[in-house]
Here is the input.
Amino acid sequence: MKLACIALFLGGLGCSYAQTPAATPPASAAPAAAGRAPAVRSNEDEGVSIDRFLRRPEDQPVHLSHGTLLIQQILGPGDPDHPGAYGQVLQYRKNLATAKLLPGAQTPLETYPDSYFFYVKSGEGRLDDGKQMWDLKDGIAIMVPPSVPHRLVNTSDKPLEMIMLQWTAGPDAKKALIVRNSYALPWCEENAHWNNASHCIFGTADGLVQGERIYTVMLPPWSVSQPHSHPQGMEEVWTKLSPGTIPVLIGSELREMQQNSSYLVPPTGKTDHSNLNLSKDKTEWFLYIARSPVNPNAPPRPQGQGGGFAANPNLSRDTTAATIAGRPLR
Here is the structure.
């Protein structure tokens, strides 16, 4: 009953219970059809199969990347605007996957033609470019531009577990590794879509194309994000970082989202999405990866101020304190 009620609320239909029937308004009180917003149609009526856009890595075969990384794809390249294989929906990226480096293993020191992003979820290790090194632990984020040598080393007796993203870089890609501690970043957004608070990890200043960004996003206990849709050409992917399972609303249907699973918001302009945190004491965390169509006439994006509130001086997109300098490789 709770989830059904929440789903109706998010769809703008309100909630009623069988034991409390609503009063029937008089005929004279019926609203006129003229001027009313058109009814939101269901996923079935819109021809949107949302299960194509949400997938978990545990259901996929294991492949190799970087020589020794064990990866399981979550979402892969495809056409999100037309029917296709499940999970193959990314318009701008080549691969979103979990990546595991076993204890004592390391990848070769090599270069690759694509850009890579790694987010460390658990374990300990080391990153180096043949000259400098960085320690790896939970919350460390890595931007690897194309043709930059890099090597990952597991220095512990437990797997080094990460989220990995691969894509073709834009013309402004940097020429060196960028390493940041996501936990040391300032908050850059508050009350985005009602309740989201964000750490802005990488953006255009780090070589991404205009409209491209990578954040971690917090959803507080007992809260939901505002349902909204995205237009064609918008690629917004949510990956659940925190343990456990939550419900998510995609269009007219609810689905369960487990740790490490991801969904692309169907870019139909009509399919709303919302993350729901029904726990009263647990915070949910997500990795947010987005690329939006560039509108040269659009005003600058706000920093997520709450409705009607003055600019919050505590918000910042300054990544200086969180950027980790490399040490000479021993």
About this structure: The longest helix spans residues 2-10. The two ends are 60 Å apart (CA to CA). Residues 1-5, 11-32 have pLDDT under 50 and may be disordered.
